[in-house]
């Protein structure tokens, strides 16, 4: 993801996880067209999630276990709104008890212990939280706000 909110991908593309509406592998960076204003991104196993500056969450790629969050198990070569008509905001992120609990624990950790985002799961070294779905994006907002991530 570049500072201007555009996404660039390359690599394997078996399930259109690169967001270019094809299944062709890419050996050089290719701009994901039609999706701008992205503020956070999470790459999973053959799928991708993106949070836009308007609070909407988008996903695309492999969906064998419903990881795109659209209520189906069909892969999508185009973008899918994860939660139709709903936006992720700081208010939602800060008023949910489970999210607040995780956020408070994250405040105490050095940045290096927040190891990776893996699709629908948030993995943080030393914490025994199981966070999924909508919560991952809300946690991204809190981490960004607390740590001034860009």
UniProtKB/TrEMBL annotation:
<feature type="transmembrane region" description="Helical">
    <location>
        <begin position="124"/>
        <end position="143"/>
    </location>
</feature>
<protein>
    <recommendedName>
        <fullName>Regulator of chromosome condensation RCC1</fullName>
    </recommendedName>
</protein>
<dbReference type="InterPro" id="IPR000408">
    <property type="entry name" value="Reg_chr_condens"/>
</dbReference>
<keyword id="KW-0677">Repeat</keyword>
<keyword id="KW-0812">Transmembrane</keyword>
<dbReference type="Pfam" id="PF13540">
    <property type="entry name" value="RCC1_2"/>
</dbReference>
<dbReference type="InterPro" id="IPR051210">
    <property type="entry name" value="Ub_ligase/GEF_domain"/>
</dbReference>
<dbReference type="InterPro" id="IPR009091">
    <property type="entry name" value="RCC1/BLIP-II"/>
</dbReference>
<keyword id="KW-0472">Membrane</keyword>
<keyword id="KW-1133">Transmembrane helix</keyword>
